[in-house]
Amino acid sequence: MTNGKSGLEGLQNPDIPIPEELQSTIAVTSLDRIYNWSRSKSMWPLLFGLACCAIEMIASAASRYDISRFGMEVMRASPRQADLLIISGTVTKKMVVPIVRIYNQMPEPKYVLAMGACASGGGPFKEGYNVVSGIDKYIPVDVYVPGCPPTPQALLNGFITLQKKIESQSIRTVPWYRSGESEAVPLPVLGPDIIDPRQAELIRQQAQRAVAERAAEASSEAEA
Ligand code: SF4
Question: Residue 57's closest CA among 166, 167, 145, 165?
């Protein structure tokens, strides 16, 4: 593989020595390294924002910070063409349902970045009746960026952290090439409160216990 003018610096495996006279001409690398290098340097985020953090995300794409330096400037308007979901803002119970649907519509490999205090844990609205305490209760999060709001620089640091994570993966163990390891997340159910279908059995047991306790109280009152 040619190096130098081809722009493949960083691909060379440092464990494999190359004679000095050939160092500017060829690079010897592994399949994992080139696979991860090409993926991590061309992440396409979904064109999607939720609240005030989204303004900082938009600023990071503008000329002053310019995420095109990370190969990320192509924000896609379709989850089918995106591989990075940036949760940039407050996640309400009403909104978590379409977020999970969008996540399921993204093809593998896909990554999630929780931007800011709201997306990571509810933020200033944590105790609010209509806000979930972190998107990671519903979909897996790869990188958390703290702040309220995080600055564009903090978001860029989150991108670099994500690139490092991608570069540590191996094509032999990534779940999207292994059957049964990459399944859709069940859609939450929005009713009087938001319900995660994975917790349905626990909720049913607690409801039955509450009914039994109420019946026991009523019968003891009747006896008295
Ligand atoms: S973390 Fe702060 S800036 Fe970001 S969405 Fe929440 S309240 Fe807004």
Answer: 145
Q: What is the pLDDT of residues 107-153, one digit of tens each?
A: 999 999 999 999 999 999 988 899 999 999 999 999 999 999 999 99
In terms of domains, do 24 and 84 share one?
no
Q: Which domain holds residue 104?
A: 52-177
Å from CA of 79 to ligand 1 middle: 23
Q: Which atom of ligand 1 is nearest to the CA of 117?
A: 1
Q: Which residues line ligand 1 (CB under 6 A)?
A: 51-53, 89-90, 116-118, 123-124, 148-149
Task: Tell me, in angstroms, the distance from the centre of ligand 1 to residue 50's CA.
Answer: 9
Q: What H or E segment, with its residue span, contains residue 209?
A: helix 200-223
Beta strand 189-190 with 194-195: parallel, antiparallel or unpaired? antiparallel
Instruction: Write the residue with the smallest CA distance to atom 3 of ligand 1.
Output: 149
Domain co-membership, 125 together with 103 = yes
Residue 43 within any structural domain of the chain: no
Record the pTM: 0.83
